Amino acid sequence: MDALITAVGLQKFFGSFHVLQDVDFAIAKGEVVCIIGPSGSGKSTFLRCINQLERIDSGYVTVDGEMVGYRRDGHRLYPLSDGEIARQRQAVGMVFQRFHLFPHKTVLQNIIEGPVGVLKRRRTDCVQEAKVLLKRVGLAHRADAYPGELSGGQQQRVAIARALAMKPKAMLFDEPTSALDPELVGEVLNVMKELAASGTTMIVVTHELGFCREVADRVVFMDAGRIVDSGTPGEILENPRNPRVKNFISAVL
Amino acid sequence: MRDIESAGSTPFVIVPPRKIWTKVLGAIVIILLALLVRAFWVGDIAWSYVGDNLFAPSVLKGVVGSIVMTFCTMALGILLGVIAAIMRMSDNPVLRNVSIGYVWLFRGIPALLQLLLWFNLALIFPTIGVPGLFSFKTVDIMTPFVAAFLGLGIQQGAYTAEVVRAGILSIDKGQTEAGLSIGMTPLRAMLRIVLPQAMRVIVPPIGNETIGMVKLTSLASVIQYSELLRSVEDVYYVNSRVIELLIVAAIWYMVVVTVLSIGQIFVERHFSKGWGGHRPTQPAQQTLAEEAA
Ligand SMILES: Nc1ncnc2c1ncn2[C@@H]1O[C@H](COP(=O)(O)OP(=O)(O)OP(=O)(O)O)[C@@H](O)[C@H]1O
Ligand SMILES: [Mg+2]
Questions:
Q1: Which CATH number belongs to the domain containing residue B144 in this structure?
Q2: pLDDT at residue B262 in the model
Q3: Rounded to two decimals, what is the model's pTM?
C-alpha cells in the first residue's frame, strides 16, 4: 500500500505518563480515517505528533515517504532545523478544536498569510485562490470580517480554508465541532463531507459517529494510548467485536 | 411591608439624595485652589519672564532636544526589550540567562549613575576599537548625546523586556501552534502572529514609560546634553530668574506629555483591530445583498 502518512511504534510520555503506547498507523492517499475513543486516550496527542507540535519519544512518523523531524543517515537520525520542520509542516493542514484564527487579521488575511507570508507566492494569485476557497466553505461575503465578528461555525470554516490554502497533502482535524453550538455543527460537517468527497486525505478525531458512518473509509478506536481496534465504519460502529469499543459506542449513542 | 401596602395606587417617587457634603467639599477645594493661584500671582514671580522665555530659541532647542532624546531612547529600549523578551523565552539556556542577566543588571543601577558611567567611559577605556583595524578616542565618541542615548535606552530596554514578556505570555499558545501549522518557523510565528497581538497588552505600559522617559531625559542635563532642563538652566545662570524659567520648563514638559497621551489613544486604537469596537462593521444590507447574489 502506498501510504501517505505512517506512524511506526509511536511512543510518547508526558513526564512519567505514557500517553501513546506503541501506536502503528497508516493512511493511504485519498483515504478518510476517523479516530474515536474516550477522553484522554491520546487522540489529540497522536495528531499533534504527526504535525510535530509534540516531540516523539520513540518510533517515527513519515509523510509522503519522508521521515518527519529527522534526517536519516543509515541508523543515525539528525534532528532537523526549525526551517526544515516548518517546510515539512506545510504538507499537512491542521484544524483545531478552538479554531485559533488570527484575531488581528481579517478572514482574507488569515487565509493568505500562509501562501503569501510563508510560501512567498504572488499576493494577487493568493487572494484569487482565497476567494475561491471562501466560496467553497460558503463565506465569500465575509472576506473582510474579523474573526471576532463571526459565529463559531463560520470561524471553523475559515480555519479549514486557511489550512487548505497551503495546498496540503493531508488534513488533520482535532474535534473540529466540539466547541460549537449544536445548531452550527452541521455547516462545518458539510464542508468536511465535501472535502472528503473531493478526494482529500483526512484524519478526523471526532465524537460525531454519524459523520464517521457516512464519510469514513476506516474508523480507528483509541483507548489509553493504544489503537484498540480499527475497521470499516460497519465493523466498528455497527457490530463492534471488542468489548471496550462496544461500551464506548453504547455510551455515546 | 405596611409601607408598601399603604402606597396604594399612587406611584412611588424617587427623591435624589442632596449630596450636601459633595457641594461643601467642592467649595473648599475651589477656595484652596484660588488661594494657591493668588499666592503664586502675588508671590515674587515675574510672569513677564515666563512669557518672554516660553518661545525663546534656546528653550525651543531644549524642547526639541528632549523630544529627540525621548524618541531615540524609547526606540532603543523597545528594540532591546523585544530582543531580550524573545531571548528570555527561548529554549536555549545561554540566550535565556543572558537576558536575565541584562535585566538584572540594568534595572538594578540608578539611571543617573548609568548616565555618568557611560559619560565617563573614557576613564576605563581611553580608546575604543578593534586592535589593528581601527581605534577611536573614547572621549570623541562618548558625546553627551551618545552617553545619554546609551544610558537611558539600555536601562529602558531592561524594563521594556518585562513588559513585552508579559504581553507575549498573555497570548494563547494555540496562536503559535496555528502559525506553525501553516508552515511558519517559531520565530516567524512570534513576529507575525504573537507580537502584533501582544501589542494590545504592551502599548499602554509602554505609553506610560514613554511619558516617564520625557521627564527622565532631564537627567541628561547633568552630562551637558542640551535638553529642556539644561537649556532653561543656561538662561537662568545669566539672568538669575530661576523660578520663572523652571516654570517655563514645567509648562513645556506638560505640553509634550499631553500630546503624547493623546497620541497613545490612537496607537492603542490601531492595535485593537479585530477586537470589535472601533472598526465600522459591514452594513447589514450589503451582506444580505451579497448573500443573495
Ligand atoms: N502538555 C501536556 N502535559 C501533560 N499531560 C498532557 C499534555 N497534553 C495532554 N496531556 C495528557 O495526555 C492525555 C491524552 O491527552 P489527549 O489530549 O491526547 O487526549 P484526547 O484523546 O484528545 O482527549 P479529549 O477527547 O479529551 O480531547 C490526557 O490524559 C492529558 O491530560
Ligand atoms: Mg483531544
A1: 1.10.3720.10
A2: 93
A3: 0.83
